[in-house]
């Protein structure tokens, strides 16, 4: 049994996609430092993340990012109780950089090594922004690669109630943004354009998955948006990008919020959280908050910096792994297809 009377300080490392990040977090909730080196400017040139470039940039940046996170935290290496790292899911070459770095540090410094699930990290971001939050709650995880509806029964206990049947929510944002010429990364750009638009200007479909009340589908919506753009171009009509963005966002948000609330109601859970890059979306945050308020439920979302990829969330999730006694060996490997709840 791990002694919980003592503060546990963890260095977290994240390199699963296009952010090289390191953070120092105490007891899973108090952030001493949170350093993120984004590669977005470079990948933007190619219109999306190029895995080979991502791996190379992680190699170049990871030592400097960790050094800065340690300097800002001011704990010194003696003050670090464990080294945590994202082990999956993600791009294998990108993950391997963080995993190798964490193994080298743990070995050289004689510290415990803890491999963390990236999605569990996104969920844990809520513990940083809401220090009093405890399971059980329902969490909608919406990122570039994942759309999961998870019933969080305990800090390490997840039931996957629903998921996307096709594209992830963030991927849909990115594809629509590209189609209307807003560029990459699409989510924040659609969010910004939508603020000037009318969400009722265009009626886009809301995908339902028959007999699966908590699952999502975005392919019909994506096709409807692309058809709308093609039709307008064929007729020589100009597209109002703000109206399109706002209407598209309303459709996505309606689908996400309705399933999440349905899940919480049916499971008899009064707390709802959102996590992942798309949880930074202002319309989604507002809509989820309003739907929860209407039903007297509590609604939680992380501060924007903890919604998109960061290492503080990895150090937070690792704290609960540490308490449960998880210690990884030098055989820890990158797991690009890790499923939620896999240990
Ligand atoms: O969680 P994340 O940083 O990386 C993954 O684990 O995938 O999520 C990135 C995704 C991208 O698809 C990006 O377009 C989306 O999150 N995103 C947003 C917003 N900010 C980031 N989507 C909608 N609105 C936003 N404000
Ligand atoms: Zn992520």
Characterise the protein shown here.
- This protein has 343 residues and is α/β, with parallel strands linked by helices.
- It has two domains: 134 residues, ATPase, nucleotide binding domain (Nucleotidyltransferase, domain 5); 167 residues, ATPase, nucleotide binding domain (Nucleotidyltransferase, domain 5, 2-Layer Sandwich), CATH 3.30.420.
- 44% of the residues lie in helices and 19% in strands.
- It is built from eleven helices and ten strands.
- It has a five-stranded mixed sheet with strand order 3-2-1-4-5, with helices on both faces. Strands 8-7-6-9-10 form a five-stranded mixed sheet, sandwiched between helices.
- Strand 6 and strand 7 form a beta hairpin.
- Helix 5 runs parallel beside helix 7, helix 5 packs antiparallel against helix 8 and helix 6 packs across helix 8.
- The longest helix has 27 residues.
- It is globular.
- Zinc ion binds next to helix 4.
Key terms for this structure?
343 residues, Nucleotidyltransferase, domain 5, 2 domains, five-stranded mixed β-sheet, globular, binds 5'-O-[(R)-(carboxyoxy)(hydroxy)phosphoryl]adenosine, binds zinc ion
């Amino acid at each position: 049994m791990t002694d919980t009377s003592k503060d546990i300080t963890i260095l977290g490392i994240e390199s699963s996609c296009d952010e090289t990040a390191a953070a120092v977090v105490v007891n899973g909730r108090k952030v001493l430092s949170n350093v993120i080196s984004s590669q977005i400017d470079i990948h933007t040139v190619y219109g999306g993340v190029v895995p080979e470039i991502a791996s190379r940039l992680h190699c170049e940046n990871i030592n400097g990012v960790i050094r800065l996170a340690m300097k800002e935290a001011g704990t010194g290496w003696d003050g670090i109780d464990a080294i945590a790292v994202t082990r999956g899911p993600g791009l294998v070459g990108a993950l391997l950089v963080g995993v190798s770095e964490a193994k080298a540090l743990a070995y050289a410094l004689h510290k415990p090594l803890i491999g963390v699930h990236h999605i569990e990290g996104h969920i844990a971001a809520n513990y940083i922004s809401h220090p009093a939050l405890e399971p059980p709650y329902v969490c909608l995880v919406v990122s570039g690669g994942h759309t999961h509806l998870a019933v969080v029964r305990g800090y390490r206990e997840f039931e996957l109630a629903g998921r996307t049947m096709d594209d992830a929510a963030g991927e849909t944002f990115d594809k629509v943004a590209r189609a209307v010429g807003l560029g990459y990364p699409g989510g924040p750009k659609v969010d910004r354009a939508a603020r000037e638009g009318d969400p009722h200007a265009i009626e886009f479909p809301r995908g339902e998955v028959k007999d699966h009340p908590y699952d999502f589908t975005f392919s019909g919506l994506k096709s409807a948006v692309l058809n709308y753009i093609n039709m307008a171009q064929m007729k020589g009509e100009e597209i109002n990008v703000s109206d399109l963005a706002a209407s598209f966002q309303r459709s996505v948000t309606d689908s996400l919020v309705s399933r999440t609330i349905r899940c919480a109601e049916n499971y008899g859970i009064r707390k709802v959280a959102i996590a992942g890059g798309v949880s930074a979306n202002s319309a989604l945050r507002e809509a989820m908050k309003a739907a929860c308020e209407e039903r007297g439920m509590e609604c939680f979302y992380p501060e924007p910096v903890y919604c998109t990829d960061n290492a503080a969330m990895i150090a937070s999730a690792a704290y609960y792994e540490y308490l449960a006694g998880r210690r990884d060996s030098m055989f820890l490997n990158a797991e690009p297809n890790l499923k939620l709840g896999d240990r």
